[in-house]
Automatic annotation (TrEMBL):
Its job: Component of the general transcription and DNA repair factor IIH (TFIIH) core complex, which is involved in general and transcription-coupled nucleotide excision repair (NER) of damaged DNA and, when complexed to CAK, in RNA transcription by RNA polymerase II. In NER, TFIIH acts by opening DNA around the lesion to allow the excision of the damaged oligonucleotide and its replacement by a new DNA fragment. In transcription, TFIIH has an essential role in transcription initiation.
Biased composition (Basic and acidic residues): 272-292
A Pfam family: Tfb4
PANTHER family xref list: GENERAL TRANSCRIPTION FACTOR IIH SUBUNIT 3 (PTHR12831:SF0), TRANSCRIPTION INITIATION FACTOR IIH TFIIH , POLYPEPTIDE 3-RELATED (PTHR12831)
N-terminal signal peptide: none
UniProt key word Mitochondrion: no
GO BP: any one term: nucleotide-excision repair
Name the UniProt record assigns to this protein: General transcription and DNA repair factor IIH subunit TFB4
Keywords for the protein's UniProt record, in alphabetical order: DNA damage, DNA repair, Metal-binding, Nucleus, Transcription, Transcription regulation, Zinc, Zinc-finger
Species of the source: Anisodus tanguticus
Length: 292
């Protein structure tokens, strides 16, 4: 029989970082629908139990994403309580503390969640696992997000995405809101993760168990959803608006929707904006043919 020590970090052992959107302003908008926050948690708990049952060496870490803060609420490697009781109790404490914080501390406002903070916390935890030794489970991040994208978090979110790409950590995205998330589309596409927006909210557990429960090794043998129509537009650094065309600083690569005399990020001085001169082919088209 193969010793247990050689099975500790096999290809099918996963470290799953789950980011749960707890923004009360988002969930209050779903009260008119049948998919409430309590039903959402029941689907998530069933999914987490299935992950831990697939392999006894699997590890699950849950991070709550509020609109003022984010925090670890569950770690299967350290929790001695029942999973459901521990997770629900810490989630309730987190939501109360998040609402008690000053409203001025919110990054983008009440309608947005602190996605950049939860991604950073997940990557920090993964880096700690990497440095714990040469043997470690295969890490991946799953974002269960519903709030709209916070434009002021664009730079921080993109930095987290590129950090995950460099560490070869895929970011899976399951969008439970009414609209797609450009941030998570780019995150899943760049890091090689899976982006999915379930068509039926009541079937969330089926989506999670069939798409996101598979480990990274098994994904090579499955036909998972592929990204279609990824929104690669960036947000300008001056007004935080999504733009199609803009001005880019050649020093720090900051993006602006209008021409500025000076870069607000690195302080570089810009030259005058040049008007686009008509090309020679355009001039030929505009020149009348006198021989006709």
């Amino acid at each position: 029989m193969t010793p247990v020590s050689s099975k500790l970090y096999a290809d099918d052992v996963s470290l799953l970082m789950v980011l749960i959107d707890t923004n009360p302003y988002f969930w209050s908008s779903t009260k008119n629908t049948a998919f409430t926050f309590s039903k959402f948690l029941s689907h998530v708990l069933s999914f987490l139990n299935s992950i831990l049952l697939l392999n006894q060496m699997n590890q699950v870490v849950v991070i709550a994403t509020g609109y003022n803060s984010c925090n670890y609420v569950f770690d299967s490697s350290t929790s001695s309580m029942q999973r459901a009781e521990c997770l629900l109790e810490k989630l309730e404490d987190f939501v109360d503390k998040d609402e008690s914080l000053s409203q001025e501390n919110s990054v983008d406002g009440f309608g947005f969640s602190l996605l950049s903070g939860s991604l950073s916390m997940a990557l920090c935890y993964i880096q700690r696992v990497f440095r714990s030794g040469p043997l470690h489970p295969q890490p991946r991040i799953l974002c269960l997000h519903g709030s709209p994208d916070g434009p002021r978090q664009y730079v921080a979110v993109m930095n987290s995405i590129f950090s995950a790409q460099r560490s070869m950590v895929p970011i899976d995205s399951c969008v439970i809101g009414s609209q797609h998330s450009a941030f998570l589309q780019q995150a899943s596409y760049i890091t090689g993760g899976v982006y999915l927006k379930p068509q039926v909210s009541d079937g969330l557990f089926q989506y999670l168990s069939t798409v996101f429960a598979t480990d990274l090794h098994s994904r090579g043998f499955l036909q998972l959803p592929r990204p279609v129509g990824v929104d690669f537009r960036a947000s300008c650094f001056c007004h935080k608006n999504t733009i199609d065309m803009g001005y880019i600083c050649s020093v720090c690569l900051s993006i602006f929707c209008k021409h500025h005399k000076k870069c607000s990020t690195c302080g570089s001085n810009f030259g005058e904006a040049r008007k686009q001169e008509p090309s020679a082919s355009d001039q030929r088209r505009k020149t009348p043919d006198l021989n006709r």
